[in-house]
Write a structure and sequence with these properties.
157 residues; alpha+beta; 4 helices
Length: 157
């Protein structure tokens, strides 16, 4: 289980580096879609990244200064699956506000206190099956499960 957690955090760190590189690119299409790479470690994008009108039903874009949001699904050769949501905001404060909202939601959904992460973004939190972090004006949420040897599901975190 610890190996899966370390691997998942490594993948999140790699995603973060890719987001920073892509954030400097200029385009006329939704900016957040361009932040999602085709591959992350051993994971490969399944289909095209989708622009989102809003990161979730309860988050109003104007409350957090959301400029662009996108979501992509990634699958490993072993069948592990993760969903990555990227939200580009107008400010660092907007991205941090999304992180605090996500941490509260994670606690409410899992009935567990979110654990702070170090080394992933400026600040990040994790609960079983989900990691959220922010760096600069970009907020990222990664969720997913992996398959165990007996065919059941195991948490990626």
């Amino acid at each position: 289980m610890r190996l899966i957690s370390s691997r998942f955090i490594s993948i999140c760190s790699l995603l973060l580096l890719l987001f920073i590189t892509a954030a400097g690119q200029n385009s006329s299409s939704p900016e957040a879609v361009k932040l999602l790479p085709k591959t992350v470690g051993g994971f490969r994008a399944q289909g095209a990244a989708r622009p989102l009108a809003s990161p979730s039903n309860e988050i109003a874009p104007e409350n957090f200064g959301v400029r662009s949001a996108a979501e992509g699904t990634y699958v490993s050769p072993k069948g592990e699956r993760m969903t990555v949501m990227v939200v580009q905001t107008q400010s660092h404060a907007g991205a941090y506000s999304l992180l605090t909202r996500a941490a509260a939601g994670m606690k409410r959904e899992t009935q567990e206190q979110a654990t702070r992460l170090s080394g992933v973004g400026i600040a990040g939190v994790t609960v079983p099956e989900r990691i959220a972090f922010y760096k600069g004006a970009v907020f990222v949420s990664v969720s997913g499960k992996s398959k165990t040897a007996d065919g059941g599901d195991a948490s990626l975190t």
